[in-house]
Amino acid sequence: MTEPLLPMSEQPPLGDRPPRRPARPPRRRMRAGRLLIAITALAVVMVLVIVGAGAVLNRLGGGNAPDFKGQGTDAVVVQVPEGATATKIGRVLQDAGVVKSSAAFTSAASKEDAKARGLQPGYYRLKKQMSGSAAFTLLLDPAARAESKFTFPEGLSVRQALPIISKGTGIPVEQLDAAAKQTAALDLPYGAKSVEGFLFPATYTAAPDATPVQILKMMVDRFKQEADKIGLTAGAQKHGITPLQLVTLASIVEREVRNDRAKAATVLYNRLKDKANFPTLGLDSTVRYALGDFPGALSNAQLNVDSPYNTRKNPGIPPGAIGNPGNEALAAMINPEPGTWVYFLSLPKEDKTYYATTTAEFDALRAKLAQQGGSGGY
User: How crowded is residue 286: how many other Cβ atoms within 10 Å of its Cβ?
Assistant: First the structure.
């Protein structure tokens, strides 16, 4: 006989009930609460970031940036550094009292982005207390450029270089010549006693108030930078000569040849080694330097001039450079092209230098030189 079913509302006796499990916490509600808190915190952070970024942009890009009005008052010369951005230029102008805030300038520049890319480094004549827009416009005006600028080509001697520097800077040649003799102030390298060889050929921009010594020292400093880049001191050691001798030989290469300077370097090294056939270097360029950069055909009397720079009479390397070599000639003396050449000769009508190993080859070149109206050669 089956027992009757209990009514649905009736519970079994306590002793017959299974143990009750502990109630689970409302996880979904807790997770939802935490998520809400996180979203709220994130929103607050984003608001703070937006507000902060707005403040920064307001400072850099203009906004309500402090600004002067008008075209300015007293004149002032300002240098725009190499590679400076509009923001950097703005700070320079602010520090010089040209603009009231760097943001005023960057705001003006941002409105003319294409023109802003044309801002150039250099010295400018501006005015104090200019509006950012006025300062930006004046920096784009070539008439505002205040620097001295000149280009000094390779191979020229100091006496040939000074008139070029004088023309570019307005400094009299006499003052530049006096500055060239201040070797201690110029801080010449390698124990050199003359600035010859250390005025590096390049285009220079100088401050309008630069002194003669500052102009020449800028060129010497540029030489030092370039010499460090190409490892000049180590290159000289490799060939068993001093750095000053390497500069001297490079200056001869610069004066003597028109092409293949690494071959010309080999000619000089080969002659220095072959004292039996070449007791001296025997070069016209050094004689011309001894004669004050004499440009014409050399007479026998001139070829016998009494000078330590006369390599037709004196063995070995001259006591100093005969001009100011550029990178290519210096690099050629460090890394000459392997070969047996011992002669070079430049033919004027071809504007080219030829190289020879034997006397017969060289005599053929001298015959061509004579046909073209030239003379000399060794």
Answer: 26
Q: Dihedrals φ, ψ of 237, to 5°?
A: -60, -35
Q: Which amino acid is at 68?
A: F
Q: Give CA separation, 313 vs 83, 174, 187, 283, 345, in Å.
A: 51, 33, 32, 10, 20
Are 107 and 63 within 8 A, CB to CB? yes
In this structure, what token pair is assigned to residue 107? 């705001």
pLDDT band of 62, cuts 50, 70, 90: very low
- Would you state the pLDDT for residue 50? 44
Distance in angstroms (rounded) separating the CA atoms of residues 298 and 167:
30
Angle, in degrees to the nearest 10, between helices 261-273 and 327-334: 40
Give the domains, in start order, of the chain with CATH numbers: 75-144 (3.30.1490.480), 148-230 (no CATH), 232-371 (no CATH)
User: What pTM was estimated for this model as a whole?
Assistant: 0.73
Cα 199 off chain centre by: 15
